[in-house]
Amino acid sequence: MAAVITGWGKCVPPGILTNEDIAGFMDTSDEWIRTRTGIHERRISHVDMSELAYVASCRAIAAAGLEAGDIDGIILTSASPEIIIPNAASRLQERLGVRGIGAMDINSGCCGFVYSMAVAHGLIATGTHKRILVAGAERLSFFIDWTQRDSAVLFGDGAGAAVVEAGPEDEGLLAAELGCESEAGSALMIPNFGSGMDRWGPDAGRLVLQFDGQEIFKRAVRAMCSLSEAALDVAGLSLKDVDLIIPHQANLRIIESVGKRLGFADRADQVFVNLQKYGNTSAASIPLALTEALEQGKVKPGALILFPAFGAGLTRAAMVMRWGQRVDPINTSPVELPPCELSARELIQTSLDFCREGIEAVR
Ligand code: ACO
C-alpha cells in the first residue's frame, strides 16, 4: 500500500517583512540579501505555530474532499511549537475539533516534512491508518536574533499540510532516504533553550543561535544530491525520469547548485522555487512549495517529483513521489487566520528591542 497525497494546503501570515525593512535597522541591504540568498521578503506571524498549521490543515482536508473527522492520525513537524508539554500535534487536533486519534510531533528541522511522510507511509503500509494529516509549520521569527545579520535575514513563518491516504502501489511515495550528520549539529543550534537551559543565569531568556552558514551550505548541496540519487536508486528510477524537483527552500544558491549537480542546469523550470516570498520556513518549506507548485500548474498528472531537504540536526533527506491524476482540490475551506492590525515591522519591534538592549528595554 503506497502513501498518496490527496489534499494539500498552505497558510502564510499576512505580515510581510521586506529586505528593505530589515536594512532599516540592521547593517545589510536588499542587494546583499537578494544576491546571496534569493530572498526578497518573508512573513512574520501574529498567531501561534499551531494556528498556522490549523489553517493549512483545514485547506488540505478540504482539498482532499474530506472532513476533519475522516482523519485517523496527525503528524505535525515543527521546530517552533508554542508549547512543549503537551505536544503541538495535540494542540492542532484540538483546533481541528477531532477526538481520540493519535497525534505526534516530529522535530527534524527543515527535513521534517520528508521524515514525516516516511512515517506516514509506514503507518499506512502496515494498514493501521488510512488517512493521515501531515502538517509542517513554523514560527521561526520567535528565535531570531535581530542583531545577527547572517541568520536574521534567512528565516520566515508559514505552514503547509498534506492529507496522505492509501493508494495504488505505483503512485505516491516510492522511496525516502533519511539521514543525519549529528557530528556537525552545532552548525545550526540553539543550545540554551529546552530542559537543559540555565533558567536563572544572567542570560536567561536570551536565545543564542549558533550558525555557520558556509558549513551548512556545503553539506546541504552534497547531501541533497547524494540522497536524491540514493532515493531514485531505491525506486529503480534515474534523474532523467524526474519531472519536477521541489527542494527545501533555504537559499537560491543552494537550490541552483543542487539543480546543476543533478543535471538540471538546462531544465531550471523543472526546479520549483518560491523562497523569494517566504525565506526559509524550515519544516513548512516543502509542503508550502508543493501547494504553490500545484496552484501554479507545475505538477502534471502522473509527474515524478523529487523532494531533497537539509536542515538542523544536521538532518538530510530525499523522497521520490509519483503524483496521481488529480491536480486540483476537491473543495476549499472557508477557514482564515484572524486579521492583524500590525505590520510585520511592528510585530518584531519588542523582539528587536530585547535583542539590542536586553530585558530592561521591554519590561
Ligand atoms: N548583510 C550584509 N552582509 C552580510 C550579511 C548580511 N545579511 N550576512 C553576512 N554578511 C557578510 C559577512 O559578515 C561577510 O563579511 P566579511 O567578508 O567582511 O567577513 C560576508 O557577508 C560574506 O559572508 P559569508 O558567510 O561568506 O556569505 P555567504 O556567501 O556564505 O552567504 C549565507 C551566507 C547566506 C548564510 C549562506 O552561507 C547560506 O545561505 N547558508 C545556508 C544556511 C541556511 O540556510 N541555513 C538554514 C538551515 S539549514 C538549511 O535550511 C539548509
Describe the structure.
This protein has about 375 residues and is α/β, with parallel strands linked by helices. It has one domain (about 1-360): Thiolase/Chalcone synthase (Peroxisomal Thiolase, Chain A, domain 1, 3-Layer(aba) Sandwich). About 30% of the residues lie in helices and about 20% in strands. It is built from twelve helices and 13 strands. Helix 3 crosses helix 4 and helix 7 (about 215-235) packs parallel to helix 8 (about 250-260). The protein is globular, with a radius of gyration of 19 Å. The structure holds acetyl coenzyme *A. Acetyl coenzyme *A (ACO) binds near residues 36, 37 and 220.
Domain count, please report it. Answer: 1
Strand content: 15-25%
- Side by side, the strands of the main sheet go 1-7-6-4-5
Structural class: alpha/beta
* CATH fold name: Peroxisomal Thiolase, Chain A, domain 1
Rg (C-alpha, Å): 19 Å
Topology as a string of helices (H) and strands (E) = EEHHEHEHEHEHEEEEHEHHHEEHH
Query: Which stretches are low in confidence, meaning pLDDT under 50 for 5 or more residues running?
Result: none
User: Architecture, CATH level 2?
Assistant: 3-Layer(aba) Sandwich
Helix content: 25-40%
Biggest beta sheet summary: 5 strands, mixed
**Amino-to-carboxy terminus distance:** 56 Å
Distinctive features:
binds acetyl coenzyme *A, 21% strand, 363 residues, Peroxisomal Thiolase, Chain A, domain 1, 32% helix, 4-stranded mixed beta sheet, alpha/beta, 12 helices
